[in-house]
């Protein structure tokens, strides 16, 4: 069954504790937390002090998405915080292998993220080292869904099958809506990250919205 990962970025920034409680009540599978530095993407969001507080508050697995330049600067603190998963953009570092090694030791699941224009070939040397691959279905920092990534999701799913890799989760992030959920899962996504489709008031609040996303499959 598809896993739903509400992105806290979509919640009211003045009511994060309430949003976390809502997402728990919604029985979401993961709590997705975007760390943005104002350089890799324009926005600044969720410094590590806040990530630590979220990790201590929630019962859900915390899924950190680093959207920062030079993620190597954050590794020691992240290992200490020990979220469930930390995913790093391949475009954000010249030292991807070292960054993935730097996340070892805290029991953290390791992920890599690819922007829409980044080809799957960059995964060749790291696929065996990671626990999840996030394919951005919008450009980072935006929500404009890019349908051509559906084909990329399908090709990654086929590659995982071909290489006999069963433990790697395939995550779709960006512009995910109930209308698109079925196509994303049919293409091969295991996890759907959603900010506005969970937190925008028009969707009726996280419990209803998570249910809608799950049922859309
Ligand atoms: O990481 C990102 C953007 O960089 C995503 O998590 C988006 O923030 C998702 O927002 P929606 O498109 O789901 O509203």
From TrEMBL:
GO terms for molecular function: D-ribulose-phosphate 3-epimerase activity; metal ion binding. Keywords: Isomerase, Metal-binding. The keyword RNA-binding does not apply. GO terms for biological process: carbohydrate metabolic process. The keyword Isomerase applies. This is Ribulose-phosphate 3-epimerase. The gene is rpe1. It comes from Saccharothrix espanaensis (strain ATCC 51144 / DSM 44229 / JCM 9112 / NBRC 15066 / NRRL 15764). PANTHER family: RIBULOSE-5-PHOSPHATE-3-EPIMERASE. Its EC number is 5.1.3.1. It is an enzyme of class 5 (isomerase).
